[in-house]
Amino acid sequence: MTVRIRSALDTLPAYAPGRSVPGAIKLASNELAFPTLPAVAQAIADAAVHESSGINRYPDNGAARLVTALAALTGAPESHIVTGCGSVALCQQLVQATAEAGDEVLFGWRSFEAYPIVTQITGATAVRVPVTAGHELDLAAMADAITPATRLIFICTPNNPTGTTVRAADLIAFLDRVPEHVLVTIDEAYTEFDDADDSPDGLAEATSRPNVVTLRTLSKAYGLAGLRVGYAVADPAVVTALRKVAIPFALNSLAQAAALAALGARAELAPRWQQVVAERTRVHAALRELGYEVPVSRANFVWLPLRERSAEFAAHSEQHKVIVRAFADASGGVRVSIGAPHENDAFLAAAAAFPR
Ligand code: PMP
Question: Could you tell me which of 81, 186, 190, 286 has the fewest CB atoms within 10 Å of its CB?
Answer without folding.
Answer: 286
